[in-house]
Amino acid sequence: MLNLNEMNDEKLKAMWSKAEKLAGASGYESPSIEQFISGRSNDSAQKIKNMIIFDIVLKALVLAVLVVDFVLFWGTFNVMVVTAAGTVMLIPLLFYQKKLLTRFILTADNGQTTRDKLASMLTYLKTRFFTTLLLVAVTYLFGFIAGSLAYFYTAYGYVRQLDGVDVIVFISFIFIGILFNFLVNRAQVNYHIKHLEACLSDLNENSLALVSENIELQRKHDRLSKFLLAMVFVVGLIMLVLVFKSAGYLMR
Amino acid sequence: MKNNAKVQQSTKKEFSERISEHQGIIHKVTMIYADSPADREDLFQEICLQLWRSYARFRGEAKFSTWMYRVALNTAISNVRKNKNKPGHEFLNENVQLSDEGQSDLDQVRLLFRAVAALNRIDKAIILLWLDEKSYDEIATIMGTSKSNVSVKLVRIKRRLEALIKEAEKHE
User: How confident is the model at residue B132 (pLDDT cuts 50, 70, 90)?
Assistant: First the structure.
């Protein structure tokens, strides 16, 4: 057994040097390592990155469907206006999200010092990520409109007349979808935030205070973009109401 | 296009050779942060992947080993997979035959690891770097903190390790 009275730095280091041999760590040749680097990552930063990439792909698909809807409903003015407006709103959102992705990749760079990496991830998740979550959730609205229009075309060949109950059901589905999407993703991000805060506080209590200052500064800069995003969201909802309302005027 | 693929392939090969040469660093990090051989293997692969992804941004400003430690520790620290509530560290390679002396070494190592496992993720990183003979300056550079903070923390960590080992010994 280890005699604590004799324990000193050298003893600890000696114990450590024995550990590697006893753990039976296997040696890897470079071909094995080449295989590892083609693998998939479970890293939290990578998961968040994948979430953003997946949403960009989804938005691009929705954009394509909106363009197809525009062509399919050629001559039906109200639907054409809605699809065109949807397309016009989605394109800048896509570019903005691409910009956010690039920023996040730089933020999550593992080559930084531990403190910088933790601080930049935390600042990003506490400020920029609200916008990202909103952008991801809003995809559901566009997807619902594009999908519904495509469905109407294949099922009826036109946008069928909707009654009040239909409109309420559709809008409820959209709200629940957006809310669910937002809350689930936010819960995951909050879990990561707590973990990062704990690590940063363990590293140096002053680091957390510094991050708080950075976050406040970043939040001030972000207020305008959040306002613009909220406007896009509201306009999207108004458009949805309009498309359902206008369905009443549309003829076969 | 073809040229790009060739360059990428040769970079991958060069990278794999460098990592293979310094893989002891990754093994040490996985020993501290993962409990079972399977988890260690997973973390090893994860670190290799993150090293490859960050390799393009490695400009040689720091020593390769310092950069490797930085990426490996950042990956291990930010890896928030849930603890599977394993009873403790599974160190022993089942195929290793131990002499009496070997058994005693194993007991000591087991005590050390049990104590280290009780530390938080940041303290684990600092003690690992110290055990691996890194200077206070290097530890401060990797962790992004001051030398004095490292020094203060190390005193606390070693004291805590001592207490944890003492407690573990009582239970043995």
Answer: confident
Q: Which of residues 119 through 178 in chain A touch B, CB cutoff 8 A?
A: 121
DSSP A75: T
Q: Do B46 and A41 lie within an 8 Å CB cutoff?
A: yes
Indicate whether B14 and B70 sit together in one domain: yes
| The last residue of a domain, from among B63, B88, B113 | B88
Domain end marker among B59, B88, B117 = B88
Cβ pair A204:B145 closer than 8 A: yes
CB contact under 8 A, A25 and B77: no
* Partner A contacted by B53 (CB < 8 A): yes
Q: Are residues B53 and B35 in the same domain?
A: yes
For B133, name the nearest residue in chain A, comparing CA atoms only.
Answer: A13
* pLDDT of A77: 84
- How many CB atoms are located within 10 Å of the residue A113 CB? 19
Closest residue in chain B to residue A12, using alpha carbons only: B131
pLDDT in the model for residue B63: 85
> For chain A, how long is the longest CA-to-CA vector?
92
B83 touches chain A (CB under 8 A): no
Interatomic CA distance for residues A247 and A163, integer angstroms: 9
Please determine, for the modelled complex, whether the ipTM score is greater than 0.85.
Answer: no
CB of B50 within 8 Å of any CB in chain A?
yes
Compute the distance between CA of residue B164 and CA of residue B68 in angstroms, rounded to an integer: 29
Output the average pLDDT for chain A.
81
Residue among B20, B58, B95 minimizing CB distance to A30: B20
Q: How confident is the model at residue B85 (pLDDT cuts 50, 70, 90)?
A: very low
For the stretch A71-84, pLDDT in tens is 999 888 888 888 89
Q: Same domain for B56 and B28? A: yes
Q: Into how many domains does chain B fold?
A: 2
Whether B44 and chain A come into contact, CB under 8 Å, resolves to yes
Which chain B residue's Cα is nearest to A203? B122
Q: What are the Cα distances from residue A45, in Å, to B74, B79, B125, B155, B160?
A: 11, 9, 19, 32, 31
Q: Do A33 and B20 touch (CB under 8 A)?
A: yes
Query: Could you tell me the pLDDT band of residue B89, with boundaries at 50, 70 and 90?
Result: low
What is this structure's pTM?
A: 0.76
Phi-psi region at B90: left, alpha or beta (left = phi > 0; alpha = psi -120 to 50): beta
